[in-house]
């Protein structure tokens, strides 16, 4: 079986990512079926080589030195819908385009993922980050995840509870060397009402002229419009297109810790009153602060440039590559931002993308 495994050497990774940055992969395997995934994992293990699974490349920063191991490029395809009571189960292969799946589900009138329209990347990547936007997270609809357990050497099915989802977090993110995700099952609501929890989305929908209550299709289309204004969709004509979306996650703090940040913001002149600091209720009685607000008020406005890298002109949380740059330069800007926010507000920002080939750390 190993002899049948097609392995490419010294493959440039930058063209396979939305940032268009990073060096070469020592080895790369294109996997279009589960047998190839298992064979690639076994091949890497037998040679004591690290393995990295690459999907759409929209949430990774690859070091300029590349990846000295095996890159498994996930190409599993397939979508299947089946009725179960008042829900429709969507069984989707890990290599499927996330946005194409959302478009398909919404087109069938299914509710549950309409606010996640326009997000680039693959379906298999969404449980890892517990992808979320506009008040919705994939963990709300995930029924199960099919994965290859690299330790046990067998395919397993994990329930939503097994996935241990949190804000932009999961067991897959915390234990990246254990699982290779093969597919995800979502439980969607046919004919269900759309989710409208996010103020920006609610306001935008209120301004629409179409009569009647918004449908899931209306919500998904509005989300795409809002994301496009922020350069958060893939558009070849957008000068901010080379990015990983939000580079930092929004800080989620205990109420007393959030209050200290607010007090500090007022003390340093970044805000006049507590209401000037964006705050949102989060799970467990915690408080979510706006990382974008903190970044801008730490001295990094939209459109800032540092040579070939900078801050998106449309979104303060998106770090962009303008062409001809390096991952080192982008990560250097990320460090500068992180240090400035910590010094000014006492908050440590955490990166949202996965950093590959940076010495075993996900800290810029």
SSE map:
Elements lengths: L7 E5 L11 E8 L2 H13 L4 E4 L5 E3 L4 E8 L4 E6 L2 E7 L4 H10 L2 E2 L14 H4 L2 E2 L2 E2 L4 E8 L4 E6 L11 H4 L4 E12 L8 H8 L9 H14 L13 E4 L5 E2 L1 H13 L11 E3 L5 E3 L1 H7 L7 E2 L2 E3 L6 E4 L5 H19 L8 E3 L8
Parallel strand pairs: 2-5, 3-5, 4-21
Antiparallel strand pairs: 1-2, 6-7, 7-13, 8-13, 9-10, 11-12, 11-13, 14-20, 15-17, 16-17, 18-19, 19-20
Describe this structure in words.
The protein has 364 residues and is an alpha+beta fold. The chain is 25% helix and 27% strand. The protein contains nine helices and 21 strands. Strands 6, 7, 8, 11, 12 and 13 form a six-stranded antiparallel sheet that branches. A four-stranded mixed sheet has the order 1-2-5-3, with helices on one face. The protein is globular. The mean pLDDT is 95.
């Amino acid at each position: 079986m190993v002899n049948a495994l097609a392995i490419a050497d010294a493959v440039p990774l930058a063209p396979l990512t939305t940032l268009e940055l990073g060096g070469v992969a020592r080895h790369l395997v294109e996997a279009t079926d589960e047998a190839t995934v298992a064979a690639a994992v076994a091949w890497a293990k037998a040679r004591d080589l690290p393995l990295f699974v690459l999907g759409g490349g929209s949430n990774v920063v690859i070091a300029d030195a590349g990846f000295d191991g095996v890159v498994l490029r996930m190409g599993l395809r397939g979508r299947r819908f089946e009725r179960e009571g008042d829900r429709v189960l969507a069984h989707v292969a890990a290599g499927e385009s996330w946005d194409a799946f959302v478009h398909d589900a919404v087109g069938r009138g299914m509710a549950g993922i309409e606010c996640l329209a326009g997000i680039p990347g693959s379906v298999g990547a969404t449980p890892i980050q517990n992808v979320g936007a506009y008040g919705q997270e994939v963990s709300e609809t995930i029924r199960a995840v099919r994965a290859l357990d690299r330790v046990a050497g067998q395919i397993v099915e994990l329930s939503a509870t097994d996935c241990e989802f949190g804000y932009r977090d999961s067991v897959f993110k915390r234990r990246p060397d254990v699982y290779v995700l093969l597919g995800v099952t979502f439980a969607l609501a046919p004919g269900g009402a759309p989710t409208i929890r996010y103020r920006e989305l609610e306001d935008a929908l209120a301004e629409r002229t179409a009569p009647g209550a918004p449908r899931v299709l209306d919500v998904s289309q509005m989300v795409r419009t809002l994301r496009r204004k922020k350069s958060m969709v893939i558009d070849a004509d957008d000068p901010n297109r080379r990015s990983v979306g939000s580079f930092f996650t929004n800080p989620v703090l205990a109420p007393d810790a959030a209050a200290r940040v607010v007090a500090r913001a007022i003390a340093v002149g970044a805000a006049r009153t507590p209401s000037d600091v964006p705050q949102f209720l989060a799970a467990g009685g915690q408080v979510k602060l706006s990382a974008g607000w903190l970044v801008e008020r730490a001295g990094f406005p939209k459109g800032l440039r540092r040579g070939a890298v900078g801050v998106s002109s449309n979104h303060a949380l998106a770090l962009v590559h303008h062409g001809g740059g390096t991952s080192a330069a982008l990560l250097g800007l990320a460090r500068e931002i992180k240090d400035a926010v910590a010094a000014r507000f006492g908050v440590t920002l955490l990166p949202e993308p996965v950093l590959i080939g940076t010495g075993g750390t996900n800290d810029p």
